[in-house]
Amino acid sequence: MENFQHMASTFAWFIPLIVICALWDGIWKLIGFWKAARNNHLAWFICIAIFNTLGILPLIYIVLNKDKPLKNKTKQITNEK
After folding, report:
1. Does 1 fall in a domain?
2. Of 27, 32, 60, 78, which is least packed with CB atoms within 10 Å of its CB?
3. Cα separations (Å) of 1 from 5, 6, 78?
4. For the chain, what is the domain count?
């Protein structure tokens, strides 16, 4: 019983770390989903959904596609002219 209590007190910092990492990953994943869906990038959307990379894959997608305009907005602009 003492070993369990010692182990629990040793890893007490571990639970908040997991919660922070899950929130970090969730936020970036949602942003990546949003941008991939808006740009009709199905392959990126699926990869972001499948692979848990602690937010690294969504960040890569956002950085690679930050300068590209949204496809829907460019269609609306050309149709309005």
Report:
1. no
2. 78
3. 6, 9, 71
4. 1
Residue the block writes with tokens 């269609």: 75
Q: Is 27 in contact with 58 (CB distance < 8 Å)?
A: no
- Whether 5 is covered by a domain: the verdict is no
Q: What's the rounded Cα separation, in Å, for the pair 38 and 71?
A: 8
Q: What is the per-residue pLDDT across 7-59, written as a single tens digit (0 to 9) for each? A: 777 788 888 999 999 999 999 999 999 999 999 999 999 999 999 888 899 99
CB atoms within 10 A of CB 28: 20
Q: Tell me how crowded residue 65 is: count the other CB atoms within 10 A of its CB.
A: 16
Give the confidence band of 80 by pLDDT, cuts at 50, 70, 90: low
Q: How many CB atoms are located within 10 Å of the residue 32 CB? A: 24
